[in-house]
Amino acid sequence: MLNQDFANGAILLVDKPYKWTSFDVVRYFNKIIDAKVGHAGTLDPLATGLLVLCTGKLTKQLPTMQAQEKEYTGTITLGASTPSFDLETEVDETKPVNHIVDIDIENALKQFEGKQNQIAPIFSAKHIDGERAYHKARRGEAFDIKPVEIEIKEFELLQVNRNENTIDVNFRVLCTKGTYIRGLARDIALHLNTVGHLSALRRIRSGEYKIEDSVTMDDIKDKFKIEDKKKVK
Q1: Is the residue at 6 inside a domain?
Q2: What whole-number distance in Å separates Cα of residue 225 and Cα of residue 80?
Q3: How distant, in Å, are the alpha carbons of 18, 29, 40 from that of 216?
Q4: Of 16, 26, 87, 102, most Cβ neighbours within 10 A?
Q5: Among 43, 42, 33, 39, which Cα is nearest to 61's?
Q6: Do 116 and 78 share a domain, yes or no?
Q7: Quick check: 154 and 173 in contact, CB under 8 A?
Q8: Which residue from 146, 94, 87, 152 is spatially nearest to 122, judged by alpha carbons?
Q9: Among this protein's residues, is 92 annotated catalytic?
Q10: pLDDT at position 23 over 80
């Protein structure tokens, strides 16, 4: 995969590291590849997993690739919430979870399968008045986000781990473009009469592309000898 004609067009499957933004990965490749680079679907900084990159002439296919379904695994923590509904911000609200049994969680996930309108978290990359929503949220500004129709095609409960005051729900989800898994964490918690946030997320598939076919950033550094700052033609 790393021995391709980048100018004429190549598809690169990268396992995005924790705390890297999707743009960090694109910018990294821009330093080592003499070709235009773009990605086919943003991953939050605290998510890991498959980021599909296109180079050169193939960047024209990005809108089509971005529209493909996505598959994730992750963990929803019930009983504690954060303003961003993930670990970017500190816990600011807690509620009891002792009324929730495993079958309640399984049924809740099934309730969210199908088409529905979702409101993205305020800490998101949505454009509001020409600016990313998370910039406004970090400044403490009040604003509205319009709901968007999404579809949850599969929502599978993998495991339930009970802690002293919280419940960790491990899941797998298959969904359409534009789905905020943090939004699902928020809404499922509300459905279960508690609060919650997304404590882990990993993209394992995007359309036909799978995480097991990806390369790590360490693979890329070794291949392109980044320490020597060599350009790849």
Answers
A1: no
A2: 44
A3: 12, 13, 17
A4: 16
A5: 39
A6: yes
A7: yes
A8: 146
A9: no
A10: yes
Rounded (10°) CA dihedral 117, 22, 198, 107: 50
Rounded mean pLDDT of the chain?
Answer: 90
Token pair, residue 233, equals 């033609």
First vs last C-alpha separation in the chain = 15
3-state secondary structure of 233: coil
Quote the CA–CA distance of 28 and 82 in Å, as a whole number.
30
Total structural domains in the chain? 2
Q: Are residues 97 and 118 in the same domain?
A: yes
Q: At 229, which helix (H) or strand (E)?
A: none
174 forms beta bridges with 71, 154
Q: Which of 15, 44, 86, 187 is catalytic?
A: 44
pTM above 0.85, yes or no: yes
Query: Mapped to the 3 state alphabet, what secondary structure does 39-107 carry?
Result: ECCCCCCCCEEEEEEEEHHHHHHHHHHHCCCEEEEEEEEECEECCCCCCCCCCCEECCCCCCCHHHHHH
pLDDT tens-digit readout, 37-54: 999 988 999 999 999 999
Containing structural domain, residue 45: 11-67+208-228
